[in-house]
Amino acid sequence: MIIKYYSTDGSLYIIEGVEDVAVPNNPVFGDYALDPRKVFDFEHGNDENDRAPLNPQRIITYVKDGPCMLKVWGVAYICNDDGKTIEKVGF
Known about the structure:
globular, mainly beta, 0% helix, four-stranded mixed sheet, 8 strands, single chain
């Protein structure tokens, strides 16, 4: 699967080769449930800061070389390998 992420400034980021994609209803913030997750926040840098999207449903968790989390500030599309949208996350 792939994730196409359009940031708030209109930049496009494509994350390829993802597995086990989920948009949790109540994602864990802060220490991320003590999981060694890689946290991606393209709006504020990948420094694992404490800023979180206002809507908790704007977090995408997935697996790519380990557990990962994407903070969605703009719009993200979870797509199959052919690029067809499965789910839209964000505005």
